[in-house]
Amino acid sequence: MNFGVKKTGFGLTLFLTVALVFIMGTVPVDSYAAKMAEExxxxxxxxSVQLLMKNEExxxxxxxxxxxxxxxxxxGSIGKKQIGQIAKDQFYAGMEKYKxxxxxxxxxxxxxxxxxxxVTGEEVHQILWGKVIQMLEVPxxxxxxxxxxxxxxxxxxxxxxxxxxxxxxxxxxxxxxVYPGGVMGEDIDILRKMDMGQLDGxxxxxxxxxxxxxxxxxxxxxxxxRNYDEIDHIFKTFRKEIDAAAEEKGxxxxxxxxxxxSYIWLGNEANNLDELRKQKMLTWMGDVETTTFxxxxxxxxxxxxxxxxxxxxxxxxNANVGPAPWVLGTQAYLQYKYYIVQPLSxxxxxxxxxxxxxxxxxxxxxxxxxIQNFIELRIYEIRTLEREYIDKNLRPYEAKCLAAFxxxxxxxxxxxxxxxxxxxxxxxxxxxxxxDKVYSKVFLDKILKELENYRxxxx
Length: 459
Hints:
By secondary structure, the chain is an alpha/beta fold. Helix content is 56%, strand content 13%.
């Protein structure tokens, strides 16, 4: 970065002092001059590190000093290794003083060459993790339970891509053990075990997501989203608010991901709303789902999750709303012959951990800022993989499920525009009916306004 200034008196003094030290080499010189040069360099680097970690811009004076230092490096008056070592020392100290943000770390690393001559963002990335590795005297193990079956993307990606990445950057100090397929119980059981300290995290389906963070139920409202582009935009726009809602409940969100769009699955053919109302519809997802059925004049049958498949097999129920991967994972697809191609809602998922478990392991042993920076750096690192997780794994898997079902003979049904208009009208009544009961009306209104703006720009 060129701050557009000429050589200053400070820069000339620093240049001459440093040059004298390097020219004289082993010839005895006034130690005060050498100490002054080193102190000036260290002060400039310390200022740059502080600006980076606090996400601040340099003042004009700070900019001039940084530019002077850059010129010294370019002219060979100051060694690059010397700058790198000072930077390392300052970042190590800074991590105990300044709290970084998961949202700003990426931008901070991009700004490194501007503020730290001869140092790269990747080198700083390694320095930050070096401090964390130093902090983690023994491997930091997280135990996670999930309903996701072995062999699905929700297990394959964390166990391979994520763990491999974390193992590399932490030199084996970060370890996640995943207990798949419901061996730790349903989402509710896993969350309870997290509260008791038996587990650290949950790979939550939509049901667990809403139980842990009720505010997120707003994203499962019927007919709220039209496509994944809208979902991605809303999640990106409101990510800080979503994180804040989780942390208010004591949770940290690693991944905010998909279970998929939820479709209506049928054992009997139903080509319109009147025929849908005659089906034996399952309900188990809570207030949003039951209120939606109520507004559509569908009388559902409440069934506990563990009894869903048995109820399908016995004919107690013959229809339900759910994402394609869930239908595959439970093998409920074996009882279905049709599905409505227009999705009724969206089903989010999260990977969450209890914040207290992180803090309790280090509180009193390390400064609060360092503990916070470990948490933020870890989450930042994980989220660098989120798009790959979603775009290359979860959404292709959903598409494969739908294609496989049709190949097996499950026939798609498309409802008429008239029926969809009725469903849309009922959905809007659900949005208003549950506002300030299940989720904040203010939050809903912000989402709706952002969706309207996004759609207008797209059209």
